[in-house]
Amino acid sequence: MSVEVPEEFRPENQGEKPKDKDPVVEKYLVFFRRLKDGYSNEIPKDLVHSTSESSRFKVRKGWFTALITQLEMFREDYLTDSLDSRSEPLVADVRNFVASYTSEDFKFLDRVRAEDIEAGDAILDKVISYLENL
User: What's the per-residue H, E or C state across 37-52?
Assistant: First the structure.
């Protein structure tokens, strides 16, 4: 099953890319921007499932799973080998976010809350800012 990537999030439409950007950095920038801007912050009245007509909502736990997976891969691929005074706080923020959103408390929530979505957006803002300034 293939998911259609919205036009504005396709790699070829991400604007002029600096020639000296690490391809790994570019890959993560595109993916993290897609997670941040390609999904709605709205919390619909009814539960949204992957099979729902429109499932591009951050309220889905699947969105959190995708975010956590990419954060962990990014941390392992990029941050672990490049710890400096700028990345140390980010590593701590990523670890804290992952710990919170892989906890039993979050796992057994009936519904994702607005504060959870805000926390997801906040960590995305930090990671995207970090990547843009490399």
Answer: HCCECCCCCCCCCCCC
